[in-house]
Amino acid sequence: KLSADYYNKTCPKFQNIMQTILAEKQLSAPTTAAATLRVFFHDCFVNGCDSSMLIASNAFNKSERDANVNLSVAGDAFDLITRVKTALELECPGVVSCSDILAVSARDLVVMVGGPFYEVVLGRKDSRESNPSIVDKNLPKALTPMNELLSLFSSKGFSAEEMVALVGAHTIGFSHCKEFANRIFNFSKTSEFDPAYNPVFAQGLRKLCANYTKSPAMSAFNDVYTPGKFDNMYYKNLQKGLGLLSSDQAMVTDNRTKPFVDRFAANETAFFDMFARSMEKLSVYKVKENNDGDVRRRCDQFNTLQV
Ligand code: HEM
Ligand SMILES: [Ca+2]
Ligand SMILES: [Ca+2]
Fold first, then answer.
1. What share of the chain in percent tops pLDDT 70?
2. Which domain holds residue 59?
3. Does the annotation count 176 as an active-site position?
4. In the structure, which protein residues have their CB atom closer than 6 angstroms to any atom of ligand 1?
5. How far apart are alpha carbons 219 and 174 in whole angstroms?
6. Which of 134, 192, 306, 307 has its Cα between 20 and 30 A from that of 236?
7. Which CATH number covers residue 186?
8. Atom from ligand 1 closest to the CA of residue 279
9. φ, ψ at 174 (rounded to 5°)
């Protein structure tokens, strides 16, 4: 059974060690919080929060990390997990699962950049598989229509309100130009850019991304005003045509999601409450317990090589 005090006896310094390494990493690489939050989401939505997303491909098998949507995930998240895991293996070998490390990292980093605290119960086990072919159908993309976004989240037990709260994670981090290029270049016969954008913002993005095919690393902040702070600015931006992705802007155009955008924009406490509750729920989505999985010795490899 999962519980808050799962490691109290077997690894009493668990929380302290994690805190120290998380703070060090986030201070030296401020993109870590966003990268880790995204990895956590991409892990949980594909077969539950079981670190299937942390496995590296090898000569025999391709893993989830190398599925198309995951190629853009920032390396800082994996580096962070490796550092934490290494420290914990020295302190209490073979005890703390990668899935618990990832869940606690995502929570602590959200708090570190200004977001709400929520309880993360412990005792998740790590998967014995990581299958790139099931990634696509389980994760949303910038161009996924609202009907499909709603049914994807609902198929995993998340309401429209919970979806709108979770996507508030886009209050931090960035997106590569290719994710919104369709909205700023040759959008339609009558307009160069998507008229849903604030025109000054759209022109700025056109300049920023002018060379994106040659420089595919070019990116824009998801939240143009407070990209490093976890706050409700993301929703205020949506109301002003400053939502970066199509899927972001759709949250405020679609009548099924707009009321929640408006509420979270007006009331940060309401956003924080719903985000915390939804993250707590996401953190236990389809988790493996007991013999359903392992405690991996390395987070990027299965304990037994699969050939
Ligand atoms: C409506 C569903 C969603 C869609 C369509 C979506 C799509 C995307 C896309 C296309 C990017 C840019 C990736 C890149 O260019 O590197 C992104 C970034 C990000 N997403 Fe989402 N996302 C969704 C929901 C979520 C949720 C539920 C979370 C977390 C709870 C999340 C967390 C993030 C974070 C933190 C980033 C920034 C990553 C970084 O800076 O390294 N997203 N998302
Ligand atoms: Ca998973
Ligand atoms: Ca923000």
1. 100
2. 14-138+283-292
3. no
4. 31, 34-35, 37-38, 41, 72, 74, 140-142, 144, 149, 166-167, 169-170, 172-176, 179, 222, 245, 247
5. 6
6. 192
7. 1.10.420.10
8. 30
9. -145, 170
Question: Are residues 171 and 264 located together in one domain of the fold?
Answer: yes
**Count of domains forming the chain:** 2
Q: CA geometry: angle at 37 spanning 91 and 47, to 5°?
A: 85
End-to-end CA separation in angstroms for the chain: 32
Q: What is the pLDDT of residues 67-122, one digit of tens each?
A: 999 999 989 999 999 999 999 999 999 999 999 999 999 999 999 999 999 999 99
Closest residue by Cα to atom 20, ligand 1, is: 38
9-67 pLDDT tens trace = 999 999 999 999 999 999 999 999 999 999 999 999 999 999 999 999 999 889 999 99
* Maximum pairwise Cα distance, the chain: 66
Is 242 exposed, middle or buried, given 0-12, 13-18 or 19+ CB atoms closer than 10 A? buried
pTM of the model: 0.98
Cβ atoms within 10 A of the Cβ of 114, count? 15
Q: What is the reported pLDDT for 69?
A: 94
Please state the length of the chain. Answer: 307
Percent of the chain with pLDDT over 90: 97
In the block, tokens 């198929």 appear at 155
